[in-house]
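Re-run with default settings, no changes from the original entry. Doing this only to confirm the output is reproducible before filing.
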Amino acid sequence: MNKKKSIFESNVLYTIIAILVGFVIGAVFLLIAGISPAVAYGKLIDSVFSKPKYLIWTLTYASPLIFTGLSVAFSFRTGVFNIGAEGQFVVGSLAACVLGILLDLPPVLHALVCIAAAAAAGCVWSLIVGVLKVKRGIHEVLSFIMFNWIAFYLSNYVVNIPAIHKGSGEATKDVLDSARILFPEGIRNFLDCSAANWGIVLAVAAGIAMWVIIEKTTLGYRLKAVGYNSHGALYGGINANKSILTALGISGALAGLGGAVQILGMSGRLSQFAAQEQYGFQGITVALIGSSSPIGCIFSGIFYGAMKYGGSKLSIVKAPSEVVDIIMGCVILFIAISQIFRILFKNLRKKKEVS
């Protein structure tokens, strides 16, 4: 009975249900559009699992999503809603790109400097909002939304500075090869993936590190205590404001690292934005699917990366790639209302126990 009870109370069960419901609703929309769900989903699965190189591309797509997912999840666990991961991602990618172009350093060292600068940029960008919250009482959600747009326009301004702007087009110059975090050429050729990079290794390492911090350290205990009950934590001698700033700083650094991985690993340059890139907002999806668990974010990030990469191939079977957005949106909706399912299962168990 206890085992059955733990299954019905597990976040994994409701996540699986939400994913299945998302695919069912996606199938309905495909049918309305006159497209066979079997053909579309078959192509989606085939585009991810049929060849080893597709799996590598999936992991490449997943790397920045894992970082932004970890960013949002870490803040969730500590009682702060970091809706500003998008802006932190942008300033992180901007810092990595600018230093990747302007600095002339040896390989490895150059990449490390760019990655550290991206983390610092994301951290500072988030801490500004944290200071506004603890010193002036300004709600972090409002500040983060505004700072996302400030980062957006700041990036577009910097992209067009002559020293880093490419002669033609709406993008920067390519970052130097010494700043890239690509796998050695021989490995990339073997994997048949030109963009295969160390980003997934860094993302998994970050996920494990965040799990250790949250679950196995006194810092994590203090941060969670503030998240559960800031007044109780304060009564217990924990500085709530300091904990909030610490949580936002770490959260911003993670999002900034996601921007660095995207620039140094995959794109190699920063383009002028026509709209928000959405990596930060997709990180919210990753965090929710992963139940705000750092380890869960690794798997949910890979799942979302598979959906993004596989979804980009749906046009081959004349299916709209937007069906992926429909599926992921439905997944989040049903995860958000999973408490209803918990209550239903709980009532059913009580009725069986009474009878």
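Residues 62-314 form a domain with the ABC transporter involved in vitamin B12 uptake, BtuC fold (CATH 1.10.3470). Residues 109-136 form the longest helix (28 residues).
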